[in-house]
Amino acid sequence: MSRLKSCFEKLAVEKRAAFVTFVTANDPDFDTSLEIVCGLPEAGADIIELGMPFTDPSADGPSIDRAAQRALKAGGSMNKTLEMVCRFRAGNDETPIVLMGYFNPIYAYGIDRFSSDAAAAGVDGLIIVDLPPEEDEELRVPANAAGIDVIRLATPTSDDARLPTVLDGASGFVYYVAVAGVTGGRSATADDIGTAVRRIKSHTDLPVAVGFGIRTPEQAADVATVADGAVVGSAIVSLIENGLDKDHKPKEGMSKEVLDFVKTLADGVRSVRK
Question: What CATH number does the domain containing 152 carry?
């Protein structure tokens, strides 16, 4: 059984939603990023989304865009991202890791080579935001063959006519983008999210995790009442940025501050029982 499937089944027994965190690999540097990633499970993260640094993250807002640029400036690459997963797996073989980003770095690395290397490193899933379902077969087939789930994105504009295409071939879970626009923007209401999640679930048995716009424990708890997972990214990435000096070096205690904040979000998710 895949780590993602096992995770969601375990949480279903506990009658709670998954808390999913996003950080960019190598932001602000490899060692600090690894320290934060390795600390996320203890801080309450059930699933980790790890951003693959890319020069043009067009679906992301300013905070994640700046994180990607910092990561690249510090030597971030696909090799470094996979090395980070390997280093994480040396101490944690349970928490699922999902690589999130854009198709270009994977294509440049080589699709078959990437699928093999990512699986060997311990990657469980992929979210490729600029690869539509109609065009993801060249990645999805080798990734699935290597045991990696390809997670599809649904949006407020994914109507009942579109959803079957979005969901055909999807695995792991469905990521519902709660608002139109880039990451880090406004938040949707719990009622709107609940309606959308129920509609998606009428088309699939896959868990539905919701992201975009969650910044507080209260918002995370609201999402956890209606979805199978609450995803927080920009709020965590912004805190990393705020903990850097003028040279983009981490200030003393930055990693602890980030992980303490993650714990408050996790407590929000865990305060809700389905």
Answer: 3.20.20.70
